[in-house]
Amino acid sequence: QLAKDLLNPSFDFERRQHKKKRLVQSPNSYFMDVKCPGCYKITTVFSHAQTVVLCVGCSTVLCQPTGGKARLTEGVYLLKDCKTYPGCLGCAFESEVTTNHNI
């Protein structure tokens, strides 16, 4: 008998695995809908954006690139649960300011 169940790994174990070494391969990136705090327009932003994303209505900076994931600006709202996107493993926030992603 094995100490670990290889066919049914725990959620935390799968989340910590490399994207190609999971039981079912899935990307770490995802798309998210964000709402501008100034004009309330909705923009779709890639989680690992490599350029500054501006609002199409008022040219407010919505997110800035870092080494990996893009950092959302203070006051920017996420409209959807990230769980709806296939690559996200367990993010659950619909509130202001998102700097702590659970990916």
Automatic annotation (TrEMBL):
Q: Which residues form a coiled coil?
A: none
Requisite cofactors = Zn(2+)
Question: What Pfam families does its record include?
Answer: Ribosomal_S27e
Give yes or no: UniProt keyword Ribosomal protein.
yes
Q: Name one GO molecular function term.
A: zinc ion binding
PANTHER family found in the cross-reference section = 40S RIBOSOMAL PROTEIN S27
Name of the protein described by the UniProt record? 40S ribosomal protein S27
